[in-house]
Recover the amino acids of this structure.
């Protein structure tokens, strides 16, 4: 299902009631869709963090399920709902509140919130069988177009400004980060060209947890990079065992990450990605220019730099030279790459 | 350039907030760079590479790390600002302009300052006791500066305090030094092994100042208020202060200061002092020290004796029965005319006046005062001295509608001039009290008055002797040396203590008047 | 901080290093402490209880009193747990407990007929005419003078009403039930702006409208209500708060949300279409329609908290146009009263303070429950009425946090980053801080029947809280063991 289709699916009937304690009736919030990794997932958890259009719930087994409002796209571990007015999780939910589910509904008793899962569509990111041949001319055009969007709408932080623009960054943190990227990215590129899992794992280790953001830029980059590898797998068969060899080291890296990054990484290892990232991959695969513009612009707007960082990772994973500046303005990374 | 950092565990701010936080911190004066990132290993490495030396062991990817770099003096404030930004319930809403209102009650203030353990109350007397009761109910100790609190109210407060193992210092408690911080009228003294509990504010000031000047320091100086040792109150606060100092590891010698308590109260206090487990020096001003000494308790006669004995004990030496019974030599003093025979003591500290009266009682006859002892006469018209006169200028008569003489010197200066006009005045005795709460420049106030007094006396072909002492330390805002020098240059003779000044004055006039000499 | 007994050899809390000293009185003491390297907070102190010494002592005895603290916890949690549900509409005589046949209920603390202010007397006369107990206004007045009618406060009958707050036996009332505690509360229905009974108007058109409300609107609403069953009021009110309402003086959002619920049910409930259309049109045209429901909901929440022995939580604030009265949870049926204060506000063109009636009505039950003036941060438009800014609105709400037992997370305020509104007024804290509860209110003309002439902000008189605390202290007594 595409985003625009989903936005139109709004239940018309008045919400049913469910009794959650002592005869008190609360209206059920209808869920629109539920991701594959959130389906039948859990019985018990607690609210971890709350934002306007998202609420993270940490399950007792350590996994993450994210409640989403209508604005964000789907997530493999997400449950998208139609919140009553005003559409803002912060109105009801607070970190620490306990969450329970019984298959048909999800309850947050302390907040008087109940989500009806029974009518939700099952969402998958749909990248199985998606194939990108990065060398094909239409793909190259699509990749260039994606990079252009990224260049034009570069956020203030993260990897994108350091890689796509030639200005020397102002802060010592950013300079150090740029230097680190200049060392690590070429190594990662060489490792994936030569299908060297060990070298790739080492390079990824240098990137995990690196940089600003609640999900550090490096983590978002890695997710994008893994999406690229998955998309290339159909054409470049030897990438499959390479990917397989990355599972163990990546799982270790994920374990050290925070709950949110970890879930994204675990999803990525299983070939599951967020809708906003998946849309860009699909647009590149189908060489759909309009769709690419829309979805790339949308992805770049996710988080502060999270979306942009995952787009950088995606482009890098498809063709590393894409994240070097145009040849006439070489930057450190371009010089380092062969 | 220095670096400071703080790990905030399990802080899940969205990235925009983090970015805004960094920007906010970077704008603070004195901050060069600021960063707010998740405390992953790689970020820690990056920070080191970038020149921010942080070692945040135990931090994980779920924790937020705030790092600031800049001038050393600005860093603590920047970190605090960052924490405030994060943990603020953020009801400042859209703008940061609305500031938190000042607390309107003790309970509100306590909610703001979690570390508070004491309330200092100086409201008008009719409300002070109720405020103190609230403070006790909230688990706070109380220093009650206010006077005009009834004895009944005082007893009620002190009983409530006892139930909760708290102390009420006061009412009418003008001096305390708690944890090295001078409260109300108190001096800046070194921290050290001598603890004091006193029913007299100026008594505590004298003892603590002398301890400091003798090279040691004060652990705590606890005031009890002037009525604590009356029979009705029974010494509840002195008893508690004694107990607290006995249990305080920093205190090695305890000093108790008061006018003589009611007999049964004195007995109880002394028996508790003997069980304190530490040496206790007791100055019940006016009581016979020999009747007090024994069983680990050393009786002192004057405030100075108490201070010196405590210092000697703390140094491992045996304390003397009395210090300085021998008056200092009469050198460098102006010659007095035959008609000049009387001492006029103009005191800002009531206890000093009382101590002076006690000391003069053994030496001179015809002493009048508004705080007379034994056979001494009550001064009838407080505005007119005759014979030897010792005045406590802190008496209600003088302070009604006027600031206390320790702050406002006008009344005393006028009185100095008046004494100078009297041809029988020989010596004018003065106490000069420094420390927080007192006048900002006593010598500046006194010197012109001394000069004027000399001029008045000179017109009558007389000299005048000004004798006194400065109750203060170098650490006081007014500065001991500065004050002492100015007074000495103006011709005042300064001694080490009230007791010495009184003895000096007494020896100057002895033999000049009929009676004991 | 509660009492912690010290063990025999432990160090006194007085000697705790690094403590902050709370300074009450001379500012110079706090300044000296800081200069000397210590830490101090200056308490912005004024004599509590308006300088009344006896009250000051009573207050001191109640501060942090274990029995009062525990009673407040009980009362406050009962209030928080309350779930007001609109369960139906009924006729006052059948639903309102204790409403005798010749009885008229009025807003505020008890007041005899001859002391009532002009607008309230006008409203009473209107009610007498509506009930048919007299043929004209003069006869109605004579009937009232004669003593044949009993006048009692709405609060004594689990009811509330805005402005004059008149409820007579034949009037339709909202029935709101607390699903958590089982108690019920009632309120009359809002007549709309302009010439209305609650402002003291009693002309034939006012009476006719009342009759229409009872004969057409109430049955129509009843039928519609039956379609969607009991309506949870708290979530609706919470949503309205997010949309710029504060539940007392601004009710447009709540009224709209209610209308949204109502219309589909109204269209499909099979009631006579003409009558239903009239009712819907009437309701749609009245931005304050929800006020009466808001008041009933607040009354039900606070009644759940009332009657907890030793509690200092305020469970009612109300005005009868002459006097302002409050009740505490722990002092039973007693009212603590003071002269009704003047309202500072903005007047509609050609009106001024000289035309204003003193503050009147049960609608301050909303402030008592944490809405209205307490939630002002969420309705900055209100402060325009006193020439203030949105910052002032936020400051006012924040000020209220210092006199309340907690924050009600059922009603969150976006302007304060979604923290709950301050709720549960603690009479002790009011006296201790001299911060009086703030009330957003409408201003009526002092002459019966003219109507609303402005709106503004007023404060509950401290005197009420002084009396209340003294009374509570006498009941709680000593010793202080829990």
């Amino acid at each position: 299902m595409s985003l625009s289709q989903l936005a139109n699916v709004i239940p018309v009937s008045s919400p049913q009631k469910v009794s959650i304690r002592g005869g008190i009736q609360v209206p059920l919030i209808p869920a629109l869709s539920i991701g594959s990794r959130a389906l039948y997932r859990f019985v018990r958890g607690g609210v971890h963090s709350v934002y306007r259009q998202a609420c993270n719930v940490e399950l007792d087994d350590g996994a993450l399920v994210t409640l989403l409002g209508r604005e964000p796209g789907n997530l493999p571990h997400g449950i998208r709902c139609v919140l009553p007015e005003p559409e803002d999780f912060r109105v009801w939910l607070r970190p620490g509140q306990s969450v329970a589910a019984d298959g048909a509904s999800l309850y947050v008793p302390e907040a008087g919130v109940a989500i009806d899962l029974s009518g939700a569509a099952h969402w998958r990111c749909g990248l199985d069988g998606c194939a990108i041949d990065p060398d094909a001319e239409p793909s190259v055009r699509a990749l260039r177009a994606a990079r252009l969007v990224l260049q034009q709408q570069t956020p203030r932080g993260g990897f994108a400004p350091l890689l796509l623009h030639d200005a020397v960054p102002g802060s010592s943190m950013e300079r150090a980060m740029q230097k680190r990227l200049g060392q690590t990215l070429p190594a990662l590129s060489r490792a994936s060209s030569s299908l060297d899992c060990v070298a790739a794992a080492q390079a990824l280790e240098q990137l995990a947890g690196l940089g600003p953001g609640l999900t550090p830029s490096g983590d978002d980059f890695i997710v994008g990079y893994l999406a690229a590898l998955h998309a290339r797998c159909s054409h470049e068969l030897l990438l499959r065992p390479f990917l397989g060899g990355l599972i163990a080291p990546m799982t270790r890296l994920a374990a050290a990450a925070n709950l949110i990054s970890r879930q994204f990484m675990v999803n990525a290892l299983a070939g599951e990605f967020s809708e906003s990232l998946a849309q860009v991959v699909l647009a590149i695969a189908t060489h759909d220019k309009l769709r690419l513009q829309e979805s790339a612009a949308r992805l770049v707007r996710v988080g502060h730099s999270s979306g942009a960082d995952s787009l950088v990772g995606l482009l890098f994973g498809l063709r590393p030279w894409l994240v070097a500046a145009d040849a006439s303005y070489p930057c450190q990374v371009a010089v380092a790459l062969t | 350039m220095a670096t400071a950092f703080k790990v905030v565990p399990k802080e899940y701010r969205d990235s925009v907030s983090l970015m805004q936080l960094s920007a906010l911190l970077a704008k603070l004066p004195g901050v060069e760079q600021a960063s707010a990132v998740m405390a992953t290993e790689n970020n820690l490495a990056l920070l080191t590479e970038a020149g921010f030396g942080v070692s945040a062991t135990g931090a994980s990817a779920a924790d937020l790390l705030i790092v600031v770099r800049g001038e050393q003096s600005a860093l603590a404030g920047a970190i605090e600002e960052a924490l405030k930004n994060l943990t603020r319930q953020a009801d400042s809403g859209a703008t940061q302009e609305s500031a938190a209102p000042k607390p309107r009650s003790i309970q509100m203030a306590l909610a703001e300052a979690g570390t508070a353990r004491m309330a200092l109350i100086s409201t008008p007397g009719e409300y002070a006791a109720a405020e103190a009761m609230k403070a006790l109910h909230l688990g706070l100790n109380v220093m009650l500066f206010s006077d005009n609190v009834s004895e009944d109210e005082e007893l009620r407060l002190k009983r409530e305090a006892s139930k909760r193992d708290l102390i009420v210092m006061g009412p009418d408690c003008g001096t305390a030094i708690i944890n090295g911080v001078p409260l109300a009228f108190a001096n800046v003294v070194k921290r050290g092994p001598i603890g004091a509990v006193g029913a007299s504010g100026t008594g505590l000031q004298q003892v603590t100042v002398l301890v400091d000047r003798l090279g040691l320091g004060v652990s705590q100086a606890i005031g009890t208020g002037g009525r604590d040792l009356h029979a009705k109150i029974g010494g509840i606060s002195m008893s508690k202060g004694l107990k607290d100092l006995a249990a305080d590891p920093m205190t090695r010698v305890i000093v108790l200061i008061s006018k003589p308590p009611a007999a049964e109260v004195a007995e109880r206090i002394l028996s508790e002092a003997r069980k304190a487990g530490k040496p206790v020096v007791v100055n019940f001003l006016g009581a016979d020290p020999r009747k007090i000494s024994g069983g680990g308790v050393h009786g002192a006669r004057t405030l100075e004796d108490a201070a010196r004995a405590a210092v000697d004990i703390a140094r491992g030496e045996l304390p003397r029965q009395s210090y300085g019974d021998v008056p200092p030599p009469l050198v460098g003093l102006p010659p007095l005319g035959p008609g000049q025979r009387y001492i006029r003591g103009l005191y800002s500290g009531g206890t000093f006046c009382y101590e002076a009266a006690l000391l003069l009682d053994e030496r001179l006859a015809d002493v009048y005062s508004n705080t007379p002892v034994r056979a001494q006469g009550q001064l009838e018209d407080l505005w007119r001295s005759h014979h030897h006169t010792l005045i406590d200028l802190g008496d209600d008569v003088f302070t009604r509608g006027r600031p206390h003489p320790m702050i406002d010197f006008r009344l005393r200066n006028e009185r100095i001039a008046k004494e100078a006009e009297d041809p029988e005045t020989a010596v004018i005795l003065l106490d000069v009290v420094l420390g927080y709460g007192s006048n900002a420049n006593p010598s500046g106030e006194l010197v012109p008055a001394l000069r004027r007094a000399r001029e008045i006396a000179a017109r009558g072909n007389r000299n005048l002797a000004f004798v006194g002492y400065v109750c203060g330390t170098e650490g006081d805002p007014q500065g001991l040396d500065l004050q002492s020098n100015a007074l000495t240059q103006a011709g005042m003779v300064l001694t080490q203590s009230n007791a010495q000044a009184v003895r000096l004055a007494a020896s100057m006039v002895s033999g000049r008047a009929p009676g004991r000499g | 901080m509660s009492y912690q007994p010290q063990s025999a050899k432990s160090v006194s809390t007085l000697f705790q290093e690094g403590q902050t000293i709370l300074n009450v009185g001379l500012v110079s003491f706090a300044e000296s402490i800081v200069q000397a390297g210590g830490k101090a907070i200056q308490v912005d102190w004024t004599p509590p209880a308006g300088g009344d010494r006896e009250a000051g002592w009573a207050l001191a005895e109640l501060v942090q009193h274990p029995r009062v603290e525990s009673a407040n916890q009980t009362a406050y949690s009962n209030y928080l747990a309350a779930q007001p549900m609109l369960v139906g509409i009924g006729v006052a005589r059948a639903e309102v407990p204790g409403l005798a046949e010749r009885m008229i209920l009025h807003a505020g603390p008890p007041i005899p007929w001859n002391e009532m202010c002009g607008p309230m007397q006008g409203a009473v006369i209107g009610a007498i005419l509506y009930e048919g107990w007299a043929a004209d206004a003069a006869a109605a007045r004579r009937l009232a003078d004669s003593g044949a009618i009993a006048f009692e406060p709405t609060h004594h009958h689990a009811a509330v009403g805005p402005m004059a707050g008149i409820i007579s036996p034949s009037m339709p009332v909202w029935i709101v039930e607390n699903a958590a505690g089982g108690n019920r509360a009632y309120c009359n229905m809002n007549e709309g702006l302009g010439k209305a009974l609650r402002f003291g108007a009693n002309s034939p058109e006012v009476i006719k409208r009342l009759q229409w409300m009872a004969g057409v609107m109430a049955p129509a609403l009843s039928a519609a209500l039956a379609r969607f069953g009991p309506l949870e009021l708290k979530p609706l009110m919470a949503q309205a708060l997010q949309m710029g309402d504060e539940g007392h003086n601004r009710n447009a959002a709540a009224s709209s949300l209610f209308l949204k619920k109502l219309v589909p049910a109204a269209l499909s409930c099979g009631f006579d279409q003409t009558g239903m259309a009239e009712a819907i049109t009437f309701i749609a045209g009245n931005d304050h329609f929800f006020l009466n429901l808001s008041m009933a909901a607040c009354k039900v929440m606070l009644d759940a908290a009332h009657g907890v022995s030793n509690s200092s939580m305020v469970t009612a604030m109300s005005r009868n146009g002459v006097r302002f009265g409050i009740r505490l949870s722990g002092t039973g049926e007693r009212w603590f009263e003071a002269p009704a204060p003047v309202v500072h506000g903005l007047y509609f063109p050609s009106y001024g303070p000289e035309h204003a009636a003193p503050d009147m009505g049960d609608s301050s039950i909303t402030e008592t429950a944490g809405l209205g003036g307490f939630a002002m941060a969420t309705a900055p438009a209100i402060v325009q009425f006193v020439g203030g800014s949105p910052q002032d609105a936020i400051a006012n709400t924040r000020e209220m946090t210092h006199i309340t037992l907690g924050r009600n997370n059922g009603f969150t305020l976006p302007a304060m980053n979604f923290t709950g509104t301050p709720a549960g007024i603690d009479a002790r804290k009011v006296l201790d801080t001299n911060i009086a509860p703030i009330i957003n209110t409408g201003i009526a003309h002092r002459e019966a029947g003219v109507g609303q002439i402005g709106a503004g902000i007023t404060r509950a008189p401290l005197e009420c809280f002084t009396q209340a605390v003294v009374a509570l202290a006498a009941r709680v007594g000593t010793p202080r063991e829990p």
User: Anything to note?
Assistant: Chain A has two domains: 3-123, 137-336. Residues 3-123 of chain A form one domain. The longest strand of chain A covers residues 24-35. The interface with chain B takes residues 48-49, 51, 56, 95, 156-157, 171-173, 175-177, 179-180, 206-216, 218, 256-261, 303-306 of chain A (CB under 8 Å).
